[in-house]
Amino acid sequence: MAAGDLIEFGKLLGAGLAMGLGAIGPGIGIGLLGAGAMQAIGRNPEATAQIQINMMLGIVFAEAVAIYALVAALIIKFV
Amino acid sequence: MDELMSDVMEPVMGEEGCLPGCMTGKGCLIYVVVVAVVAVLATKLPVVLPEISIPAEPILTLPVVGFAVTNTLLATWLTMLLLIVGSILVTRNLNMVPGGLQNLVEWGLGVLLGLAESVAGERGRKFFPLVATIFIFLLVSNWMGILPGFASVGLIHEAHGGGHQVQQVSALGVNINLLQAEEAGEHGTGYTVFSFLRSAATDLNTPLALALVSVFMTQVVGVQAQGLRYFSKFISFKDVLGLIVGPLEAVSELGKIISFTFRLFGNIFAGEVLLAVLAFIIPYLVSVPFMGLELFVGLMQAFVFAMLTLVFMSMATMGHGSEGEEH
User: Fold this and answer.
1) A67 vs B53: CB contact, 8 Å cut-off?
2) How many CB atoms lie within 10 A of CB B319?
3) Number of residue pairs across A and B with CB atoms under 8 Å?
4) How far is Cα B215 from Cα B309, in angstroms, rounded to an integer?
5) What is the DSSP string of B248-298?
6) SS3 content of chain B, % helix, strand, coil (to 5)
7) Closest CA to B221 of B83, B317, B117
8) Which end of chain A has the least Cβ crowding within 10 Å, N or C?
9) Tell me: the pLDDT tens digits for B236-265?
């Protein structure tokens, strides 16, 4: 294997692993947020709007971590 | 054909005819024809996998200063033009009883102000200009980046490695270069496109600038509210805990800058890459629902940036020991 091939292999593997592993945590986190929000709405349907806004805010934070992983993967692959 | 259609549509349509939300027989036929036409187009006019570059590409260079104007800078200027012209048009003849466009804008601003006051209390009014500006600017900029022409039409440029072949087409006396799907071999020169316009937040500079402004203004607002006692958050000799937590707070401010920047940049840049790559994989069709996703993501990122700025400013003016305001 030439050195260039090895680097290419490393890039592809790195990009795949970065995004794949980096999405596990946020996925679980967003699921937990959704579950908590569902329970809260079930207990108190009148507060649905407030709960939804706060859930959306929390989800965006959790998703930001996944986006960091995505940016890292893109940088590994294309830079 | 009609029996087939009625067999398919029977459970959906019901006895009275078409229930709201279902497709009529003619609508279904139009849908099938559109899909077929698009599929034929996809083979005749293939979409090229674009060269994905994180830094923005320079479009023109100002002669005296030597400053390279990039495509994201052009998009930012276009956003600014849109907002300034829009504001002038709306505020031209202000009525006490608003109608039409002025009413719409007042409603929008009213919703934003209500949100700001529900999060930050009475101080929300003071923070409102910066927060609403960030929201409106990011919203218009993100949504403009989905328009056709962004990241697709631009200057043909020689690619360093790889790239695609180019076919010259003459239309109305103007030479247009179309990027072909065939890649250039080692002996041919490959070309790539530097698009004229690219969504402003896909350049790392714009989110970084907004994040710096946001965090800096948070410190300013904190000093305005608490005087120089605000800095006792970072440097405190009162007890050992304060001594340790101080540098942590300072680092977390830096962390805020980085997280603001990369959250916005990552979402919008990844969205742009997603649209481009999907258009390459399944042309003309699959991009459409993802454009809907991009609309939502653009709105959410603008909202989150503005809301986080508001929350941090509100926390900065509160200081230690006071609880959050109740709604």
Assistant:
1) no
2) 14
3) 38
4) 8
5) HHHHHHHHHHHHHHHHHHHHHHHHHHHHHHHHHHSTTTTHHHHHHHHHHHH
6) 60, 10, 30
7) B317
8) N
9) 777 788 888 888 888 888 888 988 999 999
Contacts of B252 (CB under 8 A, 6+ apart): none
Return the exposure string of B205-219: e unless at least 16 CB atoms fall within 10 Å of the residue's CB, then b: bbbbebbeebbebbb
- Residues of B within 8 A of A72 (CB-CB) are none
| pTM of structure | 0.81
Q: Which residues 203-262 in chain B show a CB within 8 A of chain A?
A: 259, 262
Contact B270/A60, CB-based, under 8 Å?
A: no
B15 C-beta neighbours (distance < 10 Å), count = 6
Residue type, A58: G
Q: Closest-CA residue in chain B for A72?
A: B266
Query: B301 and A67: CB-CB below 8 Å?
Result: no
Closest residue in A to B302 (Cα) is A60
A9-31 per-position pLDDT tens digit? 999 999 999 999 999 999 999 99
Residues facing residue B177 across a β-bridge: B168
Whose tokens are 């959250």? That residue is B263
**Cβ within 8 Å of residue A51, ≥6 positions away:** A37, A40, A41, A44
State ipTM. 0.72
Q: What is the DSSP letter of B230?
A: G
Beta bridge partners of B215: none
Q: How far is CA B318 from CA B221, B228, B314, in A?
A: 10, 14, 6
Note whether B263 contacts A67, CB cutoff 8 Å.
yes
| Chain B residues in contact with A68 (beta carbon < 8 A) | 262, 266
Flag if A67 and B266 touch (Cβ within 8 Å): yes
